[in-house]
Amino acid sequence: MTPESIPQQDSLIDLQLILQKLRQYWYLFFLSVPLALLIAFAVTRYTTPLYDVSTTVLIKQPTDPSNASINLLYGEELFTNEKNLNNEAILLKSNDLVKETIEHLDFGVSYFAEGNIKFSEIYGESPIRVLLDSSSSNIPYGKLIRIEIVDDDSFRLPADGTTLLPDKTDKTYPFGRLVDVNGFRFVVQLLNPDQITAKDLFFQINDTQSLINHYRGSLTISPIPETSILEISAVGDNTKKAIAFLNQHVQTYISQSLEEKNRTALNTINFIDEQLQQISDSLSLVEGRLESFKRANTGLTMSEEGAQTNTQVQDLEREKAALLLNAKYFDYLKNYIAAGDITRSVIAPSSFGVTDPVLNQLIQQLVEVQLQLTGLTAQQTQNPLVKTEIEAAKTRIRELLAGIAENLDNLKRVNQIAVSDINARIGRIMGALHQLPAAERQLINLNRMHELSEGLYVFLMQKRAEAGITTAATTPDARLVNAAAVKSMITPKPRQNYLIALFLGLLLPAGFIFLKDLLNNKVTSTEDIARLTTLPLLGIIGHNKEEQAGLIDQSPKSALAEAFRTVRSNLRFMIQATPGQGKIFVVTSSISGEGKTFSARNLAYIFAISGERTLLVNADMRKPNNNTDFGVSSVIGLSNYLAGHTSLNEVLHHTLQENLHILPSGDIPPNPSELLLSRRMDDMIKELKTRYDYIILDTPPVGILSDGLELMQLADANIFMVRQGYTFKSFLSNTQQQYEAGKIRNTAILFNDVDFKKLNYGYGYGYGYGYGYYAEDEQAKPWWRIF
Description:
The structure is a single chain. By secondary structure, this protein is of the alpha/beta class. It has 4 domains: about 5-45 and about 490-520, no CATH class; about 110-205, no CATH class; about 265-475, no CATH class; about 525-550 and about 570-770, P-loop containing nucleotide triphosphate hydrolases (Rossmann fold). The protein is built from 23 helices and 21 strands. The strands form 4 sheets. The protein has an 8-stranded mixed beta sheet with strand order 14-21-20-15-19-16-18-17. It has a 6-stranded antiparallel beta sheet with strand order 3-2-10-5-6-7, with no helix packed on it. Strands 11-12-1-13 form a 4-stranded antiparallel beta sheet. Helix 9 (about 305-335) packs antiparallel against helix 11, helix 9 (about 305-335) crosses helix 12 and helix 10 (about 355-380) packs antiparallel against helix 11. The radius of gyration is 54 Å and the shape is elongated. Residues about 1-10, about 65-80, about 765-780 and about 785 have low confidence and may be disordered.
């Protein structure tokens, strides 16, 4: 393995390793998943259900040619050929329409029954009815008020904080009598005693504006693509109440549409009646004068010239009648727009023969902007963009009103000029009749006046008849397609809740495990070793019980003994290419506590029992070891020899184990580093290599002191200790850097104090099997210990 190959391993995803890590914390999943499912059950069971209730409405389009006259009367030509479904959707959510709907429903008081966990509204099923005195001075809007039904004749208001009683004494009242509690006056009626399922009921007084805001917020209006149908949906926790609201809301919308069309017809009829009243008076007067003149001039007939003149004058009078009617319409329209509100109830200009394209275009634009403003205002939002659009619409309306007023003034002037021209022509014709007898001239003049009044009268009567027929045939612009019904349940969604719970029950512990692993700065697995260094793995020493933490001589068939046998074999393989005298093994670590001394002592023992002459050198003179387990009690050792105070033979001690000698560290010297680097140390090593097959040096930690690094240069093989869950990853990275820099050589890692359940599948199976096979003397765990 090369250093360049280390980063490549980081990118590999070992599925077996992931499963192994998750399996180590199986108990977290065992607790997390049932707990998450239990929470999902509670949420599903006790969450108040929300339902989506919907209905559909057909918005009729004014495209039928048979309705042309009706459309003209109602001014439909002022708008586009198709109704704007978006505008209708906004109108359906308008504050005024929702308010009118609520006023038709009995939503002012809500009734509830108390369950084990929550309150449930009993709309349409309440055995009582509360009638509110609107003159009450203290209405507790939104407060749940408890009523205890005593019997069929009376009820009790308990003084437990759920009512407005000023004292702490319960009070009993008869049904049907006025109750006054601190200015709150109401009457409780018992509707059906058979419907009483619980003695305790609750009622709540609802504020009208709060109801409007609630139902406007719950409404959703959606056009169905490629149709003129709107789907109206409402979200609520009581399906009966939501269905009642939607059905009434659609009915209110249809009724308003019909009322608006009837209002247009009524405006038209009223305008015509006003004109007819004036024309009727004039016509009666002219007819009376004409009748009187004919009685006074019996036998008077018109000459041929007089008859021709009379025909010409009658034609001009008919033109004049139309112009005069236009003038009256201009006055009507100017007065109408003075209020600043142009809606569909305005009488269309074409209804009276006014075909000016500019006027029609201006009125059309004004109606569209007015409807747009109505829709924007109905949203009742504080959105700055909507407010900007509202102000822009108001500005545009003022501009259009000014333009229409100016256009009407121009049309009136043009109309007056035309009337004056006709009057002049009539005057010239009448002036040419001076040669006719005076009586005949007077007859022609009376006929002219009669023709004018009669023409206007006939025209207006025709329009009034059309308006009457249209009113009788009026139908609303909308029709209910499907009555309101429950579409779906929005919340809770049991399947979704349980799936989310299962997902979170697995995700949270898994996330905790991987986060814990990510934040862990200590070596826990062979994968960590492989990622951080290219040094070979010499072996793995399993976690040992406290009573087995010393020498392995008491349990030669134990898992610990087998582990050191494996290390012995690997060391022999590691140094087989370096023939010569005795071999030197240096055992070191990053810091104290990683099992350096423990491993050196047992490694020396395992070599000795194989018949090899073995010497254990305690080279950590700063921290002398107790060698009583070897049967050695002398304190004279390495420091004494290196200082020249004794001979080599005096510091070499026999142990209880055959072929195993020990060189203790001796007294703590003031200069251990200098002693280890002395020539006497080199000479001693050379001498020892001639006496022993294997020399094992227990050295100071290289992460703290430099002594160990110097001794590692003398070794045939260096054993670097790494303890699971104890050695910092940074120390292992530093060792890799020293290896790459050539400061250490022939080095292998001994992984110590390992819990095999925390290793990957390969190591866990291999080492676990081997240990179980050789540890014949170990007592088997009871079956319950697997948990």
